[in-house]
Automatic annotation (TrEMBL):
Protein name listed in UniProt: Uncharacterized protein
Source organism (scientific name): Centaurea solstitialis
InterPro entries per the UniProt record, alphabetical: DNA/RNA_pol_sf (IPR043502)
Domain of life: Eukaryota
Phylogenetic placement of the source organism: Eukaryota, Viridiplantae, Streptophyta, Embryophyta, Tracheophyta
Length: 275
C-alpha cells in the first residue's frame, strides 16, 4: 500500500457494494483487522464514517471486491494524511444538531442509513452513521427514525453538560423532511404511521409542551432545514470529488494542515486543538 496511488474519494462514485456471493473469498481476520483500524480512525475522521460502515457490513464473508473497497479507503487516507478536526477557541457555545438519512441505501436488505451530527457552536463534537434496524416504507419514516436517534444523543449531551452547570434546553434539531416534523408535532395517530415502532415516538415527549409538567421546559426544537438555505451536514457520505464535498468538509471544521501550519496555529491562543 505504500506505493499505491492516492484516491480522491474514500469509495467509488457510481458502484455500490453488494454481497458478491460468487466472488473470491479473502482472509476474514485480515479483513476485520483492517475494518477495526478504520473504525478507530473514524473518531477523528468523519469524512470516512459512512464508507467504513458500509464495508463493515460484510465482515462475516468478505470477498475480494470488499477488500478492494477497503484498500481504496487507505489510498484516500494516503492522499490526506494530515486531515483532521480543527477546534477554534473563539466560537459560540450553543448546541445544534443536524440529521439526515440515506433512504434504502443498503442494496441487500433495502434498509436506510441514519446519519447525524451535533455542534457546540462551530465545533463538531459528535456524529453518527448507523444502518436502521427496520425497513422504512417511505423517506418520511426514515427521517423520523433518524430524528429519534439524534434526539437521544442530544439528550445525553444535555445531561453531560449539566455536570458543568451548562444548560442547553430547547436545542434545535434540523431535519430536511417537512413530513417528519409534522408527525412529531401532531400527536394524532394516522394510518400511515401505525407501523412505526413505538420506541421512536419518545421524541414527541421532548417536543410537545402539553406532555411536560408545569416546571419543565421544552428540551428539543425540531426544525425544518431547507437545503437551499444551508448545506446538509448529516450523513457523512463523500463520494464525489467536487466543490460540494469540499464545502461540506469545511462546514464540519475538517481541514488538511501541514506540520509547520499546525505548529504555527498551536502558538495562537485563538486555536486549541487539531486531531
Amino acid at each position: 500500500m505504500s506505493d499505491a496511488k492516492p484516491a480522491s474519494t474514500p469509495m467509488e462514485t457510481h458502484k455500490h457494494l453488494t454481497a458478491d456471493v460468487e466472488g473470491k473469498e479473502v482472509d476474514v481476520h485480515h479483513y476485520r483487522s483492517m475494518i477495526g483500524s478504520l473504525m478507530y480512525l473514524t473518531a477523528s475522521r468523519p469524512d470516512i464514517m459512512f464508507d467504513v460502515c458500509v464495508c463493515a457490513r460484510y465482515q462475516v464473508r468478505p470477498k475480494d471486491s470488499h477488500l478492494r473497497a477497503v484498500k481504496r479507503k487507505f489510498k484516500y487516507l494516503k492522499g490526506q494524511p494530515r486531515f483532521g478536526l480543527w477546534y477554534p477557541n473563539e466560537s459560540p457555545f450553543d448546541l445544534v444538531a443536524y440529521t439526515d438519512s440515506d433512504y434504502r441505501g443498503a442494496n441487500q436488505d433495502r434498509k436506510s442509513t441514519s446519519g447525524g451530527c451535533q455542534f457546540l457552536g462551530a465545533i463538531l463534537v459528535s456524529w453518527l452513521c448507523k444502518k436502521q434496524s427496520t425497513v422504512s416504507q417511505s423517506t418520511t419514516e426514515a427521517e423520523y427514525i433518524v430524528a429519534s436517534y439524534c434526539c437521544s444523543q442530544v439528550l445525553w449531551i444535555q445531561n453531560q453538560m449539566l455536570d458543568y452547570d451548562l444548560s442547553f434546553l430547547q436545542t434545535p434539531i434540523y431535519i430536511d423532511n417537512n413530513s417528519a416534523t409534522s408527525i412529531v408535532n401532531n400527536l394524532v395517530k394516522h394510518s400511515k404511521t401505525k407501523h412505526i415502532e413505538i420506541r421512536y415516538h419518545f421524541i414527541r415527549d421532548c417536543v410537545d409542551p402539553a406532555l411536560l409538567r408545569p416546571d419543565e421546559m421544552i428540551m428539543i426544537l425540531l426544525l425544518y432545514l431547507d437545503q437551499d438555505q444551508e448545506m446538509d451536514k448529516s450523513v457523512l457520505k463523500f463520494t464525489e470529488p467536487d466543490h460540494r464535498s469540499e464545502d461540506l468538509l469545511k462546514t464540519l471544521r475538517s481541514y488538511s494542515r501541514t506540520i509547520s501550519e499546525v505548529e504555527e496555529l498551536a502558538d495562537d491562543r485563538n486555536n486549541v486543538l487539531v486531531i
